[in-house]
Amino acid sequence: MGSKKFMQIDSFIEKLRGFEKDIITRDSVLDFCSSVQITDSSLAPYTHFDEKFYTRNLIYRDDLFEVMTICWQPGQKTPVHTHNGQLCWMIPQSGNLGVVDYKWMGCDHPENQNVVGIDCLAGSDHTKVEVVREVEACAGGPVLTADKLQTIHRLYNLSETSERAVSIHIYSRPIDSCVAFDMQKNQCYRRQLAYFSKYGEVAQRDLPVEIGLPVIQ
Fold first, then answer.
1. If you write DSSP's letter for every residue of the chain in order, what string do you get?
2. Does the domain at residues 47-193 carry the CATH identifier 2.60.120.10?
3. pLDDT grade, residue 44 (50/70/90)?
4. CB atoms inside a 10 Å sphere around CB 147
5. So what's the pLDDT on residue 204?
6. Cα 209 to Cα 135: distance, rounded to the nearest angstrom
7. How many CB atoms lie within 10 A of CB 136?
8. Helix pair angle (9-17, 26-34), 10° resolution
9. What does the domain layout of the chain look like in residue ranges?
10. Residue 98 phi/psi, 5° resolution?
11. 69 within 8 A of 209, measured Cβ to Cβ
């Protein structure tokens, strides 16, 4: 692939919306995302950090696409989680992130997967997932994806002490909740998702019921 084209986030979203005219596929959006470099200056209104948790900052949302930045202080990480059966793309913007992909191996409520509109109802007390691979996501490097086959992962800032990180996330369709895994207890549960900021404005945090747990991406 040749050099990437620098693009403002508004132009990126305008191009992304063009995919809504046809069937949205993982590879078509991946090729587009891999060809561009979003400018830091255009992302500045959507770059907000918090000392306690990584932040989810909404840039754009319609019925088919959701676009946000996630901002990571050193050492911040997500729980192991799913993507509700949707397609996802992650563009590493700055810093270095670790990505651990998992495979679902079984649980005591497999019938909870057979529901319409979401990947699983969750609620298992004996669920098992295994690590598939671990990769590093670096600024300017490859765009990472989650799809209907590889949908479970954990993200974390590789820097434990000094370097912040920013990543751009695109979901199709938008994701309002997902399944998260408690790896110590081998349990899973469904979580509602919230934003730290919307369209550049930091809002009252719409925290999920489980107060004290980080809002997950």
1. --PPEEE-HHHHHHHHHGGGGS---HHHHHHHHHTEEE-HHHHGGG----SSS-EEEEEEE-SS-EEEEEEE-TT-BPPEE--TT-EEEEEEEESEEEEEEEEEEE-S-GGGG--SSSS-----SS-EEEEEEEEEEETTSPPEEE-SSS-EEEEEES-SSS--EEEEEEEES--SEEEEEETTTTEEEEEE---SEETTEE------SSTTSPP--
2. yes
3. very high
4. 16
5. 65
6. 32
7. 11
8. 150
9. 47-193
10. -100, 140
11. no
Note the residue count of the chain.
217
pLDDT higher at 184 or 215? 184
The pair of structure tokens assigned to 153 is: 């992962």
Q: Report how far residue 52's alpha carbon sits from residue 39's, in angstroms, rounded to the nearest whole number.
A: 27
What are 57's two structure tokens? 């900052």
The two tokens of residue 115 are: 């529901």
What's at 4, amino acid-wise? K
